[in-house]
Model the fold of this input.
Amino acid sequence: MTDLRKILLLSTSTVHGSGFLEYCQPTITRHFEGCGSVLFVPFASPGGLPHAEYAELASRALKPTGLELRSIHAASDPIRAVHEADALFIGGGNTFLLLRELYARDLLEPIHQRVLGGMPYMGSSAGSNVAGLTIGTTNDMPIVHPPSFEALALVPFNLNPHYLDPDPGSTHMGETRETRIREFHVRNSQPVIGLREGAWLEVADGRMTLGGTRGARLFRRGEAAEELASGSDLSALLEG
Done:
């Protein structure tokens, strides 16, 4: 069966020294080529940002690409908006809040089916987290309670956006990101990709490639972590 998925998963929307989505704008333009508009999902509300203000921020960032942005928060029928969308962009913020709002509006299955059918999808941070099997590897605080940690399952693994490497000179005694992912693998079996800021995953034509400038780390249960360089072909992970 032909794999129609066209997915772009960004570790972050902003890297140090640049504006919102500025660092990856050429990739975004290519990813949404042929689309007249993109449906934006602002439900993660970073820092408590109101949906309308978040949508305006995303609209300004996408303006150079020529895409018209429509925000799902203003749609009278969100499910219909997903079915009619040219493309979808789920922004970052709090992953627990985002997933709760997707469940509350019965949007998981419509989004899942549209993306598997070929609708271009872009996620950033929390929007990348919910593209995986579960949100069990997010860095966010559980400020609300979604009905389940199960997410969109657009890819058969989990993500850890904003991945930070252990600092060998630090005296901090709290858990590192690697430690937390190891704890996840005590009770869960799916791979986890730790995406450093400035990195992204791009799925197209049945292949998955690591893009950006910072690389990533691949964690598998019971195995040593694998360093991934930008440009790596990770298509085997799409097989689950």
Notes: The helical segments are 25-31, 51-62, 78-84, 95-104, 108-116, 126-129, 177-187. The CA atoms of residues 185 and 221 lie 5 Å apart. The longest strand covers residues 199-204. The chain has a mean pLDDT of 96.
